[in-house]
Amino acid sequence: MPTIMITGAAGFIGGHVAREAERRGGLSLRLMSHRRPPAGAAAAGPATAGPGPSPGSGFGHGHGHGPGAVVPGHRTVRADLSDPGSLRGVCEGVDVLLHCASQIGGTPEANEAVNARGTAALMAEARRAGVSRVVYLSTASVYGRGAFRAARPEDLVRNPGSPTSGSRAHAEDAVLAAGGVVLRPHLVLGDGDRWVVPGLARILRALPGTVEGWAARTSVITAQDLARLLLGAGLAPAGDLTASVYHAAHPVPVTVRTLLGAVAAVAGPAADPAAEDLTAVRARELLAARGIAAQGLDMLTSDHWFDSDPVWRDLRCTPGPDFEAAFKELAEGYRRALLYI
User: Which residues partner with 61 through β-bridges?
Assistant: First the structure.
């Protein structure tokens, strides 16, 4: 029975990974969490991973709050990526490390401490303990601004535009230097999302119309599908992996018009269909007047479409339902969550 350690196990994606691992069975789980143990897990020792996102970091890929993973009987460790000493020994006996913890937003110093130095310290522990496979959950935001059309990792140059993205690029470097695998999703949807759909709802509520037809295409993935890919990358035979960096998204991109139409349907009366089509310049002015950063708008007015076929092919994994079918399953949960923003 392989032992898998999941960092950020109380967070958005880490919680989904823990639930997916429990669903598969035949795995011994070690759940590493920074502030609180995952629901249902048995605490073991004083020793969890880096802090979750800070308020105000926008709607880019974030880890948010966990979906309440119920994983009874598995060991929980508490450690802090910003405190390398707390990581000592956490990887002992671990076969596969799924690193899902990141600091998102907050100060540049906090991002550097958790994402860059913390990941480097964790990789040193993984090497010392003889961990056979490391998979890091990164983000397509390491590329900076688009446009990206059917883009492959090998054809792109990282150009992070924020302290969070820059420090996560440094985390990638540490993982790749340790022989690990990196997955880069763009927009992640699902139970526990406190950033993507709520951020989109805020933009919709601030604008009196569409923006240049919302014609751009974007890559999305559900947290459940992303959890399947992370676990699959951790357990796949080495010979099946043809790359060290993969994009992680549903293979079919979504138009921003379709994405925002789905969000508008669950966001309440303030997101009623638009009466006019705005220019991007005018939309930025309106968002600035409401104190909303224009970064989100940039991602909605240019293509952010990343080729993810290789990861599905290499892992012999079938993508879940397309966006419209998947969002129908998530709609009621989002409708309840958006009542409070």
Answer: none
Q: Are strands 96-99 and 3-7 parallel, antiparallel or unpaired?
A: parallel
What digits encode the pLDDT tens for the residues 157-193?
999 999 999 999 999 999 999 999 999 999 999 999 9
Residues of the chain above pLDDT 70, percent: 86
Residue 145 has pLDDT above 60, yes or no: yes
Cα separations (Å) of 3 from 21, 29, 61, 259?
Answer: 11, 6, 28, 38
Which residues is 276 bridged to in the sheet? 209
**What contacts 321, CB < 8 A, 6 or more positions away?**
329
Grouping H, G, I as helix, E, B as strand and the rest as coil, residue 335 is: helix
* Range among 29-38, 181-190, 197-206 rated most confident: 181-190
* Residue 67 identity: P
Listing DSSP states for 125-162 in one string gives HHHHHT-SEEEEE--GGGG-S--EEEE-GGG------S
What is the distance between the alpha carbons of residues 267 and 336, in angstroms, rounded to a whole number? Answer: 9
pTM for this structure? Answer: 0.89
- Tell me the C-alpha distance between 262 and 241, whole Å: 35
Q: Which amino acid is at 339?
A: L
Listed in sequence order, the DSSP H helices in the chain are 12-24, 108-111, 119-129, 163-177, 196-206, 223-235, 256-266, 280-289, 295-301, 309-314, 323-337
pLDDT digits over 95-128, tens only? Answer: 999 999 999 989 999 999 999 999 999 999 999 9
The dihedral sign for the CA sequence 173, 175, 180, 184: negative
Which has the closest alpha carbon to 101: 14, 191, 196? Answer: 14
